[in-house]
Design a protein that fits this description.
Number of helices: 2
CATH class: Alpha Beta
Low-confidence stretches: none
Strand content: 25-35%
CATH topology: 60s Ribosomal Protein L30, Chain: A
Shape: globular
Helix content: 25-40%
Mean pLDDT: 96
Oligomer: single chain
CATH architecture: 2-Layer Sandwich
Radius of gyration: 13 Å
Number of strands: 6
């Protein structure tokens, strides 16, 4: 097991940003935006953080196989979905979207992921 991290991404609690197993699977902790913004802005920022982490493990966004999105307002699903679709393009990881009452730091969007990057 190996911790994946970058100097640009810090956690707000006692956990790793990502852990890679010997078989290449990577589990990413939920990422929130560095700053408060619209649902679209926060989604974009969280996805960019995931991109930096998967790249630190030697992969690309094409290696992401599963995402879970947590939203404080499910009425914003379409707005978030558009940013997500633009970010991934033709690549379509599996995904769940969950409505929640609140998120850390008062953010509106949190995204966690699973990827596979062969050693």
């Amino acid at each position: 097991m190996k911790e994946i991290k970058t100097s640009e991404i810090t956690t707000i609690g006692h956990y790793s940003p990502a852990i890679q197993l010997e078989n290449g699977l990577i589990f990413f902790s939920g990422q929130v935006s560095s700053k408060e913004g619209s649902f679209a802005e926060e989604t974009r920022d969280a996805l960019q953080k995931l991109k930096k982490l998967v790249e630190a493990a030697g992969g690309t966004i094409q290696n992401i196989i599963k995402c879970t999105i947590f939203l404080t307002d499910m009425n914003k699903f379409n707005e978030v979905n558009q940013v997500y679709a633009d970010f991934f393009g033709e690549h379509r990881p599996t995904r769940s979207t969950v409505g929640v009452s609140s998120l850390p730091k008062g953010r509106k969007v949190e995204i966690e992921a699973v990827a596979w990057v062969s050693g």
